[in-house]
Design goal:
alpha/beta
Amino acid sequence: MAGPRDPIADLRRIAFLLERANEATYRVRAFRSAAKALAGLPADEVAARAGNGTLTELAGVGDVTARCVAESLAGEEPVYLRRLVATEGSDLDAEATALRTALRGDCHTHSDWSDGGSPIEEMALAAVELGHEYVVLTDHSPRLTVARGLTAERLRRQLDYVAQVNAALPEGFRILTGIEVDILADGSLDQDEDLLARLDVVVGSVHSGLKDERSKMTRRMVTAVANPHLDILGHVTGRMVSSRPAGVTGPGDRGHRARTRAESDFDPDAVFAACAEHDTAVEINSRPERQDPPKRLIRRALEAGCRFAIDTDAHAPGQLDWQRFGCERAALCGVPADRVVNTWSAEQLVAWTHSRA
């Protein structure tokens, strides 16, 4: 008879797969909460409670998660996990698969320091399991208060903390420091210049005034792209094509309520020409509810000579596996791997960003 499985690992795997499948947040939270509750207990107490049926007396453990734990301890793959694995998505085509294989990291991710749902360490370890060599931590900047954007002081503390976490991570993987900085109304960037200069990667995105008239939005974006600290222009149009995803369980969750939103109006030829001139990469955002930029604009940026970054904008560990969606859209538009900055090693990526400052 098979020996017991690790029930905490199984609960976390279920949560990961639910996040990746874009399931409802409450489902994800149920499994992550149960895993957290059990992680604080001795293994023999967990086994004893599973045996006498008292797991559900623990805060954060419900009937479904308790059943999964019991199945794991009995040496069985939990039925819930088995069903999720059996219903995973379809395979990528050859071009998208080649592009996904070429990616070595992710340049746009969030943690519970801003509006993400998981600690920095948990996001990093999920990236390791996916085969990444690095992940860029890009929590929000101060003006985005709904997402608990990082003040200059909090960002300094995060930089020190990331250094500590990196020292404990597996050899060959590292967290790169970064930020998703707001592009303000005048095109300036929402963080101290000295801090932006210290970061490995700066993603800049428009989060406010998304209905500005065309000429104003164009000036705003072109001004931001010309800033030598801005490395990647994030979710270019700001559109939302579907409701919010699962797994965003942090305090900034209110900023991701279900909605759709039209594209911002700007001159794409002017913006992409500026990106090409200043060697600023255009993000292909992989979030299912964004799909930004739309394919017609990916093709315009490709024709303009732009580089790209295929990012997840992940707010939870399972969302780190969403790069496949960006790769599918990039492959359909003919984006070659050598135009994608996160096909580079961490050293090459940082050398590029620092050469631009």
